[in-house]
């Protein structure tokens, strides 16, 4: 077979990039196929897969925007220290961009945030200070107040302040919202997103409603948080702790416009993790727990707004499973937090065909595996010796595991 010689030009990918920062934004919009059908949803459900961003979350957009606008204003310069109180994802975004632009980073975050986030931050060279989970946001021990204190005592230190920085929602208004408008061919009916700082849902609502004021903005807020409006939604289970990371809060951030959201829904840990696990198992999307919360809000909104066939509902998937391998993706963690089994039997979501049976079977297999592993004795097979001799050992101990030594 004659083959054309490979030239340097031919071997260079057409979509090669000159800087990793260019991998922030322009994330894919992916149609869900199995899960909406199983849930009895007639409208088209698309997910904005923000875990395709460079640092793995939608917060990369915010971090980049805050840094670049601060640079333009002459507020920061390479070599300075950037400090940020965060649940982790904004910190990762800042630390990544700091590496590329020449800044130092200090991240303050509550102790409950995942080990994976801390590990990534350390790998990026960030200094990390963990704070008590039960510290009120305005107490000296909180990650918010600690960041302010550090800024006051360290030279050339700056808090970019995602909770009050208008560049947070502006990043989504100018990029994420416009991508969705274009990707849906101007046919988006509703947008669904969780709220932490509130920048995502605020920016998306502003950006999309400029194109079509009838687009509905749906907010997901975990039980125990006070971000949802009206305030009466938050009275039950007020300040109850929640395990889903990245959404919810005990104060209303300055960047959150609660009134631009057409309807808020309170979500629980159990339904959030259940739907996140179903997104993984049925759609092959390796999402984080807050994606499940957004899906729970979407499910409720479809009924309340009577979204039908032909409507397009976009759900934001803020980050991926990478940050939670030791948490909701791990059955042992779910058991330790009284969230197992996640079979959905106590939730209002219809199962997929065979889902409950499959989950039950998998649980039985796990139990059987544990029993076998605890009972088995690994017998060594040491060479030399004939194959016949080795076979006799295997036959005589058929219920054991073997390893070659």
Task: Give an overview of the whole structure.
With 405 residues, the chain is an alpha/beta fold. It has 3 domains: 20-55 and 166-345, Rossmann fold (3-Layer(aba) Sandwich); 59-159, Rossmann fold, CATH 3.40.50.1100; 356-404, no CATH class. Helices cover 38% and strands 15% of the residues. It has helices at 8-11, 34-38, 59-72, 89-101, 115-123, 143-153, 167-183, 199-211, 269-283, 289-305, 331-336, 355-375, 387-396; strands spanning 29-31, 44-49, 81-85, 104-110, 127-131, 157-159, 190-194, 216-222, 263-267, 312-317, 378-381, 401-404. It has a 6-stranded mixed sheet with strand order 1-2-10-7-8-9. The protein has a 4-stranded parallel sheet with strand order 5-4-3-6, with helices on both faces. The longest helix has 21 residues, at 355-375.
Summary keywords:
405 residues, alpha/beta, Rossmann fold, four-stranded parallel beta sheet, 38% helix, 15% strand, disordered C terminus
Q: What's this entry about, in short?
A:
By secondary structure, this protein is an alpha/beta fold.
CATH topology of the largest domain: Rossmann fold
* Global geometry: globular
SSE ordering: HEHEHEHEHEHEHEHEEHHEHHEHE
Q: How many DSSP E strands?
A: 12
Taking the sheet with the most strands, its summary is:
6 strands, mixed
Mean pLDDT: 88
> How many separate domains make up the residues?
3
Give me the Rg, rounded: 25 Å
Helix content: 25-40%
- Strand order, main sheet: write it out: 1-2-10-7-8-9
CATH architecture of the largest domain: 3-Layer(aba) Sandwich
Q: What proportion strand?
A: 5-15%
Structural class: alpha/beta
Q: Tally the helices: what do you get?
A: 13
User: What is the CATH level 1 assignment of the largest domain?
Assistant: Alpha Beta
- Poorly predicted sequence stretches spanning 5 or more consecutive residues: 1-11, 397-405
Task: Give the termini distance in whole angstroms.
Answer: 47 Å
GO molecular function: cystathionine beta-synthase activity
InterPro entries: Cys_Synth/Cystath_Beta-Synth (IPR050214), TrpB-like_PALP (IPR001926), TrpB-like_PALP_sf (IPR036052)
Organism: Fusarium oligoseptatum
Catalytic activity: L-homocysteine + L-serine = L,L-cystathionine + H2O
């Amino acid at each position: 077979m004659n083959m054309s010689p490979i030239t340097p030009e031919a071997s260079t990918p057409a979509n090669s990039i000159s800087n990793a920062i260019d991998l922030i934004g322009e994330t894919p919009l992916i149609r869900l196929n199995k899960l909406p059908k199983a849930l009895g949803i007639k409208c088209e459900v698309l997910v904005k897969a923000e875990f395709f961003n460079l640092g793995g979350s939608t917060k990369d957009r915010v971090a980049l925007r805050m840094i670049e606008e601060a640079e333009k204003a002459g507020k920061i310069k390479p070599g300075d220290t950037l400090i940020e109180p965060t649940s982790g994802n904004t910190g990762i975004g800042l630390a990544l961009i700091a590496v590329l632009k020449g800044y130092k980073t200090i991240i303050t975050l509550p102790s409950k945030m995942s080990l994976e986030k801390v590990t990534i931050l350390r790998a990026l060279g960030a200094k990390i200070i963990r704070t008590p989970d039960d510290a009120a946001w305005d107490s000296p021990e909180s990650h918010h107040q600690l960041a302010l204190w550090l800024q006051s005592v360290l030279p050339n230190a700056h808090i970019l302040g995602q909770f009050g920085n208008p560049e947070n929602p502006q990043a989504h208004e100018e990029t994420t919202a416009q991508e969705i408008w274009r990707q849906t061919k101007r046919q988006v009916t509703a947008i669904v997103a969780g709220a932490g700082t509130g920048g995502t849902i605020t920016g998306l609502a502003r950006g999309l409603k400029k194109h079509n004021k009838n687009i509905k903005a749906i907010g997901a807020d975990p039980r125990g948080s006070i971000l949802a409006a009206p305030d009466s939604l938050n009275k039950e289970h007020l300040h109850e702790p929640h395990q889903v990371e990245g959404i919810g809060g005990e104060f209303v951030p300055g960047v959150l416009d609660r009134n631009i959201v057409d309807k808020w829904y309170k979500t629980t840990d159990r339904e959030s993790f259940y739907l996140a696990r179903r997104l993984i198992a049925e759609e092959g999307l390796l999402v984080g727990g807050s994606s499940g919360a957004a899906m729970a809000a979407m499910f409720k909104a479809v009924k309340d707004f009577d979204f039908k066939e032909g409507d397009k509902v976009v759900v934001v998937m803020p980050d991926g499973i990478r940050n939670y391998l030791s948490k909701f993706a791990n059955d042992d963690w779910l058991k330790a937090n009284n969230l197992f089994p996640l079979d959905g039997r106590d939730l209002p979501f219809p199962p997929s065909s065979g889902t409950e049976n499959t989950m039950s079977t998998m649980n039985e297999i796990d139990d059987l595996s544990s029993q076998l592993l605890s009972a088995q004795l690994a017998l060594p097979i040491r060479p030399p010796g004939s194959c016949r001799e080795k076979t006799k050992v295997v036959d005589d101990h058929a219920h054991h595991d073997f390893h070659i030594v």
